[in-house]
Design a protein that fits this description.
With 565 residues, the protein is mostly helical. It is built from 17 helices and 3 strands. It binds protoporphyrin IX containing FE (HEM) and copper (II) ion.
Length: 565
Amino acid sequence: MATTYRTCPRTGLQFDLDADKLMRWNAVAGVLWLLVGGITALLVILTRWPAIKLLPADQFYLILTAHGIDMLILWIIFFEMAVLYFASSTLLRCRIATPWLGWVQFWLMVVGGIMTNVAIFQGGSSVMFTSYVPMQAAPHFYLGIILFAVGALIGTGVFFGTLVVAKREKTYVGSIPLVTFGAMTAAIIAVFTILCGAAILIPTFAWSMGWIKEIDAQLYRMVWWALGHSSQQINVAAHVSIWYLVAAVAFGAKPLSEKVSRFAFLLYILFLQLASAHHLLSDPGMSAEWKVLNTSYFMYFAVLASMIHGFTVPGAIEAAQRKKGFNNGLFEWLRKAPWGNPVFSGMFISLVGFGFVGGISGVVLGTEQINMLMHNTFYVPGHFHATVVVGTTLAFMSITYLLVPTLFRREMLFPKLCQIQPYLYGLSMIVLSLVMMGAGTLGVSRRHWDMAFSGAPFQYEWPGAAYLMMGLTGIFGVIAVVGGGLWIGLVVLSLLFGKKLDGGATHDKPVPIPDQTVAASASATGSEEHTNVPGTVVLAITLLTCFVLYYFVNWKYLSEVWGLS
Ligand code: HEM
Ligand SMILES: [Cu+2]
C-alpha cells in the first residue's frame, strides 16, 4: 500500500496521512472527554463549596466517579495516543506501522469509554475511579475499562512497530530524538501498567459477574496501585517529553546533556514500582520498615528523575536564549521569553507548577510519617491536581496551540484569548491546588460530600480557616473550569471555523527535513555546547529552599500533633 506524506509548509513537520488522521481523531476524542470531565468538575466543585452544596450525596459520588475516570483515564490517554503517534511517525518521518491496528485501538477505546460511562451514569457504579473492593460496580463498568486498556495496549504496539519500521527503513540517522525517547519510556511503562491493570480488573470483572466469590481487599489495593501509580508515570514521561519539545520548537533549545536527560527518563522505569508504595502508607498489610524503605529512600530516585528534567528543561531554554544574546543579569533570558505565545507560557506554567506545587507536596505526602497528617484528606486531590492538571493537562493544552495549525491545518481563532488561556487556567489551578492542600492540612477529608457532617449524631467544630479554604476552593475551582472551558471552546471553534491553512506538498516518500524549521529542532539530537545557566541554578535553589522549609513546617506540625511529654 502506498504511503503519502504531507510536509507542513509552516513547520516542516511531515505527516504520514494515516498517522495524521489517527492523531486527529484521538486528540478530538480526548477533548470531548475533557468536556465531560469539565462539566463534572463544575458539579463536584459546586457541591464541595460549603456555601452551595449543590448535589445530594448519591449524585455527588456518581459525578465524582465520572470526573475521575473521564479526566484521568479517558481525556489523558486519548491525547497520549496522539502524542505517541506524533513522537514516532511524525518526528521520525516514518509511515505508521499497521494503521488498521491504530483504528482498532481507537474504536476499542471509544467503545470502552462509553461503556464505562454508561455504567456510571446508570447509577449502580459510584465506586470512584479507584473502585476499591468490596465496593462493587456493574460488570460493564469494569469491562469498559478493560476494553479501553486493550485498545491502549494496541496503541503502544503500533508505536513500537513504528519505531521498528523507522529503524529498518533508516528514516533517521544516529539515535532517536529525545522527545521520541521520552515517549518510548512512557510506552514501556504503559505496557507494564496495562498488564497490572489486567491482573486486577479481569478478576474484579469476574467477581462482579458472580464467577468469583471474593477479592481480597488488601491485595486489590496493592495490585490496583501497580496500575494507578504507574499510569501517573506515563503522564509524567509524556508531559516532560512535551516540555522538551516546546523548548526545542520555541527556542531551538537542545538539552544541556542529552545523556543525562535520557538517563533521567530511564529512572522513571527503574524506580516505578518502589515509589508506588506511597499509596499504601496507612494500609495494615505492610510493615512500617517496608513503607519507610520504599517511600523515604527509594522514592527519591523517581523524584530525582523529575528534578533532573525540571532543571535541564529551563536550563536548555536559558542556554539557547543566552546564545541569542539575552545575557543581562540572571533572568533576562526568562523575561524576554515569548510570554505571549501560549505554547511557551502554558508549558512554562506547567513546569513551574508541577515542580513547586506538585513536586514538593508529593514528597511531603509520600513521606511515611508526615503523610499521617494529611492522609486521605483534601490535600491528596490538591496535590494531584498540581501534577495531572497543571503538569500534564496544561502541557497537553499548550502543545495543542501548535498542533491545530500544523496537524489540523486551521488557524487558531481569537489569538488574544489564546494568549490569556494558559494563565487563566494554569494560575487558577495552582491556587486551587494550594487551597485544597490548605483545607486538607486542616483535616477536611477528600471524597466527602458534606464537610459539616450535617445530620450526623456527633458534631465536629472546624476552625474557621477550613471553611475559608473550602470557599476559596469553590471560587478558584469555578475560575479553573472557565479557563478549561475556554480552551475547549477555542480549540473546537477553531477546528470548525478557523481559517483553513495549506496542508503542504505531498510525496510518496519522506523528504529531507528542511533546515531551520520546527521539524528540524524537534527531531534534532545532541546536547547544547557548554553554557553556564546561573538563572536556572537560582531557580533550582529556590525550589530546594521552599522544599526544605515546607518539609520542616510539616515535621514541626507533626510533633505538635503527637506530644511526647
Ligand atoms: C477545572 C478543572 C477541575 C476542577 C475544578 C476539579 C476539581 C476536583 C475536586 C474538587 C476534586 C475532589 C473531590 C473530592 O475529593 O471530594 C477532584 C477530584 C479528582 N479530579 Fe479533578 N478537577 C478538575 C480537573 C481535573 C483534571 C483535568 C483531571 C485529570 C487530568 C482531574 C482528575 C481528578 C481525579 C482523578 C479526581 C479524584 C476522584 C476520586 O477521588 O475518585 N481533575 N477534582
Ligand atoms: Cu503514586
